Structure formats: C-alpha cells, structure tokens
Amino acid sequence: MKLVRLLIDRLYDIRALNKLKPLIDAVDAAMFGPAETTEGGPHIVDNVDLKRYMSYVIVALLPATLASIYFYGWSVLRIIIVSYIVGGVVEVIFAIVRKKEIHEGFLVTGLIFPLVLPPTTPLWVVAVGVVFGVLFGKEMFGGTGRNIFNPALVGRLFITIAFPAIMTTNWQVPFTDAITSATPLAVYKTTGSMASIYDLFVGKTAGSMGETCRIAIIFGGLFLIFTKVSNWRIPVSYIGTVFVFAAIGNRLAPGSIAPPLFQVLTGGLLFGALFMATDPVTSPFTRMGKYSFGILCGILTVLIRSFSGYVEGVMFSIVIMNALAPLIDHIVLMLKYRPVKI
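The chain above was modelled as a monomer; its predicted structure follows.
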C-alpha cells in the first residue's frame, strides 16, 4: 500500500493532471479514506463516512444481483458493466467541469439501474437510460445530495416511454432463453389469471432482472433496515398500504384490482419499497412525512396498476412522490410547530 500511496501523491504533483483531481481524489478516498479531520473535539475514530452507507447498500443489493445472474445468465453482468462505465463517465465529466470531488452515490445508482431493467434490454438502450438518469435525474440539480428524483428511476422511466416495445414486450423466462410478452401483472390485467405465490416468491416468473427473486430482495432490505442505513417507516407503510388498499379494492372491484398478496409479490414493489423509496435524498426526513410518503406511494401504485394503461405503477408512484417530498415535510413541520401568535 505504501507504493500506491506514493503513486497517488505523485499524481497530485503533476500539473497536467490538475483537471483530473476529482478522479484522483475519488481513488485516494476509496483506497485510504477521506482526508478531512475535525479541528476540535469530540472525535470519532472512523475514516468511513458516506462510503459506509453506500457500501452497505451495495452489500444489500448483492443477493438480488447474484440471483439475477443465476436466473438469466452472464448477460446480466454485461448490462451492469455498461451501466457503470457509461454512467461513471458522465459522473467524472461533471466532476471535472465543476472542479468538485466524485461522490459515491453513483456506485449505488449504477447497480440499481440495471437491476430494474428486463434481461433482454439491448446494451445501447442501457447506455441511453443511464446517461439520461444521471444527467437529468441528478447532475442537472447539482449532483449527489441535491437531486429531487431518484436517478435510476428517471432513467428507467425515460427508456420505458421512449422505447415501449423494447421495455414492455420482451421478457425472458428465468432459466431459459424463452421470451414472453407478458409479466404476471400483465397476464392478470388481460386474462385475470395469477401466477402461484411460490413461483413469485422464489423468482420463477418473468420480470426485471433484480426484481424477480423476492427472497433475495427481502434479505437485502432487512439488512439495510437492521443496520439503520434505511428507515423502516417508508417500506412498512408502502407495502402495508398496498396490501390493505388492494384487499379492500379486490372486494369491491375484483376484476380490476388484484388480490393483496399477489400485489405485494409482483412487479417491482418489494424492490422499489426497500431500495428506492427509502433513498434519504429524495424522500421526506420527518417521521410523519415518511409514513405519509409510503402510504401515498402505496395508493398510487395500486391505482396505476389497476386503472391506467401501464401494468406497473411502482416507478411512477415513487417519482411522483419524490416531487412531493419537500412539500410533505413542509406541511408536517407547519402542523407540528405552529407559529406563535403575539
């Protein structure tokens, strides 16, 4: 490691590389931790800050990632690599232009984005989607920590609307090379028939790469909750609302609203609730705001799934609620801390 330290220090001294300082800083921080220290007490002996949270999310995503490779083959790795390379280039360019350090946020975005794609997605569509998501979902707002919307969802929504035939009709059946034109949600909406709960739970049905094996998703999501990287209030209120709202709706309109357990175990609900709705940057920071955010996401998801032209409502509901998150926090604070009348 001493040789690596000397090499990095040498790179700092080369004037021709001054414009690449954000990239060198990122490598330095990844290898040796951040250089910032406190001027006064109290002190915490720990050189891991934002990296800890990002690392934990990556670890939590590993079960779903490995499951997707197991179900769909090594083509999944190609999609992930393209996402990281192309999106990483956009991130580095903006860091260099702004002369700011490269944040670790893209390590998560670069993995979440491919996991919400169909396994048959062409690599050029992956590249277009991740560029759009990073550019218009994050960098246009000022970069990591300032974005209003989840960048992975912004990219996914864009390519869904721009290339509907590619993104909604070519679904690979797990463990095979067979292609189907419908996911369980689409089959229910058109025929009323449902896949078995067991098949949905273990990932034997068609869907996005990281969203099919619900066991892996739940395991990773619980890891984030128990390590306090994500707050349990949003996923619990989100999933709970979908279950309750679907149970009531299925009684009133069984032909339009699917049963509650089927709703919970289909599509990207578990993945979205545990990994995307809990994004601390784009979700409310107040406790009551988190409950409200999750409840409204749940209601919108069921409504979009049941009565719109789209069979899946998770990504739409989360992006809509991302836009309303600041307003939710504002209302909660106004109600809790009312102005004093003099």
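The longest helix spans residues 75-98.
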